[in-house]
Give the backbone structure.
Amino acid sequence: NLDVSGLVDAEGGLLDRAVFTDDQLYRQELRRVFAPSWLFLAHTDQFHKPGDFFTTYMGEDPVIVTMDKNRKLRVYLNSCRHRGARVCRADMGATRNFTCTYHGWAYDLEGKLVSVPNQEGYPADFSPGQWGLVEVPHVDSYRGLVFGTWNPEPVSLRESLGDMAWYMDAMLDHDDEGTVVVGGVHKWVLAGNWKLAAEQFATDWYHVNMSHASALMVMSPSGKKPKDEIVHRTGRQYVDPNGHGAGFPVHPKNRFDARTVHDWADYPAMRERLGEARVEGPLTNGHATVFPNFSYLPVNGSVRIWHPKGPDKMEVWAWTIVDKSMPEEVREAQRLYNLRTFGPSGIFEQDDGENWSEVQSIAHGFITNGVALNYQMGMGSEREDGRHPGQTSELYSDAAGRSFYARWRDLMNTPAWHEADQK
Ligand code: FES
């Protein structure tokens, strides 16, 4: 294990590019950042009856999320106990059991091994009860978002979210009915380290007016790029000690850019429920990351995970979620708006992916790799602003980025539970 203290100077706002390129660090990240953290898995709306399942990853570990016979969500390592093939090779669906296609071992919804072809060939003391699927020990949800962790003794999901939950509620808690998923899960591959995307959603509003200039002109009714000073002056950035972050402009109207959604939204009711500050702030077209690799865009209803696929590659999985109370035509308007802007070929998404791939494509250069990156914007600006919980900074700031990497550094330097005998 490497000590990464010299790579992350969160206090001085400097970052060594090895955090994006080094193979050994990447493997340590899987052990010490992903394995102990609460990781986003799915939305509860994807499971309505026993046997509904969705396959995804925790870090690089493949997992199956399914509803058992008692309607409890359970998560299993998607790897057969025999020779290790995946026992479920579909993206999603409904089943009575998970049958491995290699030799036919079958597991029920409770993860129990229930069928072994030619079992008589095994020794008399072979006990199928000892060969069930490996189960993720802790699974919990927050307002429809399902998370799991391999950590046997984690802090609760709610505790790990801390004040971030207040910001998340601006997207998830518009009324008593909660949210549902519309459309499928979009998946695409990007050349770039997963942290480039996660940190941007936590901290980087600064790129918007440059990177998205042409997209902003296309979206603007006047065809001109909107003036950024107002957004810059009024916006805030939430800086969470657990590495989460959120950035949002503050403006009193026009939160939903999809006109149909805007016209349908009951703003007085939302102000009543969430308060002025939240409706005028985090419910705007902001962005956010829940450490380590779950991000969302409240006004688009886009939630996404940046799956790590080696230091140089990530796979983006994105859902569109809407208020369950939305009528069909409003849901459809939101789905199309999200696709147009932040779908795989969305006009903003394209700009972001290009940036991350650009940064990654040169980061392996010997000299380049040794030149530190600057995360000093907004140094010392974090404070309690009296309107939003926790510490906030200016909108144009790297404060949440510094906090993201400080959290990453702390986890990287801390032995996880599975290293107990090495401590
Ligand atoms: Fe699954 Fe052999 S690998 S049954």
